[in-house]
Design goal:
binds N-(iminomethyl)-L-glutamic acid, eight-stranded mixed beta sheet, eight-stranded parallel beta sheet, 2 domains, TIM Barrel, binds fe (iii) ion, alpha/beta
Length: 415
């Protein structure tokens, strides 16, 4: 049994009781904390915490004492939406947008997701795995302790399974907690443009059974959007995924509101993600659901598209999660610190709301909140310690500036 104490913590943040798996509405405002505190970890699990003055002196004879030197401690970020398996960056599209083209125009002329699919088909599995591992290490150093990763740049039976097998290998070797999402329905491949139903048949009849047999995914996703998948197609793909034991988490309302959000909710989606374009009936539908809206402000930032109406969702007593959307097309960044800053600056979330949305609610949006997302006895000791900062607001305030000094995953220091 290995016991570690983190001592002299200026403020231990994100404390929640075991039964709280997410926070909604006005609950998001409060980030429960203890000042001048310690944290006790036994075998990688949080076993106790409290005020420094209550820490018994004999406990300080234990194996390992780490002095936080008056830094603040936060539960690790839980990034519930990424596409970090990709073969190549797409900076030429970035320049095209600077020169006036839109994301949709670039996609329609053969760029976008189909461009990434072509590149992925040309790269072998080992190389893709190594590239992804580098990205995983990067986000680990930026304070992320759990991440969801999607396939979706395969867009063929072989390519999708290759991507999902890479995620499975990452799960085996990484310190991070990883969840896998099957996004075979990310775009319609060129060769199926005139025969969409045949590609959908491949998803349902050729990909899903292998995914089930090899346990390659936890969730199923569809990009339900004009020029991508219709709500009807989304419905049949989600139902086929559910029959194979996968819970839906879908891309919806990024550019247009076409009823896909309701399709997600009707299929009891765990989350509906993006929501940059929301009609009043979309918000109403969310109010009567168990689905968590997941917002991706760094995608809005990078594409210069509207930000999702976070305030309106919170004021409607809903929960929201924040995630990066890390991918080569719309968000080439896996930095959750920047996401939290943007949520404050552009969506008018308070620092406490943004931090809750990026931790416990992100954990909920990938079904890991029983083990991650807060400082709770019995949860994994995944957390980061900052430089000595005066208060919580300093974290999003210094946007683009790293306040993290130490990172711990499963109780072990990794930075
Ligand atoms: O979440 N919107 C769909 N998928 C990704 C972008 C994919 C890409 O451009 O490569 C997203 O933004
Ligand atoms: Fe995405």
């Amino acid at each position: 049994m290995k016991t570690t104490y983190i001592i002299n913590i200026k403020q231990l943040n994100g404390i929640l009781p075991e039964e709280k798996s997410f926070l909604k509405g006005s609950e998001l405002k409060k980030l429960a904390s203890i000042s001048n505190s310690y944290l006790e970890i036994v075998d990688g699990i949080i076993s106790d915490f409290g005020k420094m003055e209550d820490l018994q002196i004999q406990k300080l004879d234990s194996d390992s004492i780490i002095d936080a030197k008056n830094g603040m401690l936060f539960p690790s970020w839980c990034d519930s939406h990424t596409h970090l398996i990709f073969a190549q960056s797409r900076e030429s599209e970035f320049v095209d947008r600077i020169n006036g083209l839109t994301y949709e125009e670039i996609a329609l002329k053969g760029g976008g997701i189909l461009n990434s699919a072509k590149k992925l088909s040309e790269k072998d599995e080992d190389e893709l795995f190594q590239d992804a591992l580098v990205r995983i290490k990067e986000i680990e150093q930026l304070g992320t302790g759990a991440v969801e990763i999607k396939s979706g740049y395969g867009l063929s039976v072989e390519g999708e399974l290759k991507s999902l097998r890479i995620i499975k290998r990452l799960k085996e070797v990484s310190n991070l907690t990883i969840k896998a999402t099957f996004l075979g329905a990310h775009a319609i491949p060129w060769e199926y443009k005139e025969n969409r139903s045949e590609y959908i048949r491949l998803i349902i009849e050729e990909m899903l059974p292998v995914i089930k047999a090899e346990k390659l995914a936890d969730f199923i996703d569809v990009f339900c959007e004009t020029n991508y998948y219709t709500p009807e197609e989304t419905d049949s793909i989600l139902k086929a995924g559910i029959a194979m034991g996968l819970k839906p988490k879908i891309h919806v309302n990024q550019f247009t509101s076409i009823g896909g959000l309701q399709t997600g909710i009707n299929n009891k989606a765990l989350s509906v993600d993006h929501l940059e374009v929301m009609e009043p009936n979309d918000i109403e539908a969310l109010k009567n659901s168990t689905t968590i809206p997941t917002l991706l402000p760094s995608c809005s930032f990078f594409l210069s598209i509207p930000y999702a109406p976070a305030r309106e969702l919170i004021n409607s007593n809903l929960p929201i999660a924040l995630a990066t959307d890390y991918n080569p097309g719309s968000t080439p960044s896996g930095n959750m610190n920047f996401v939290v800053s943007l949520a404050c600056i552009k969506m008018r979330l308070t620092p406490e709301e943004a931090i809750n949305a990026a931790t416990i609610n992100g954990a909920h949006a990938m079904e890991v909140s029983s083990e991650l997302g807060s400082i709770t006895k019995g949860k994994k000791a995944n957390f980061f310690i900052t430089k000595p900062i005066e208060n919580v607001a300093i974290l999003p305030y210094y946007f683009g500036n790293n306040q993290i000094r130490q990172v711990f995953l499963n109780g072990k220091e990794v930075l």
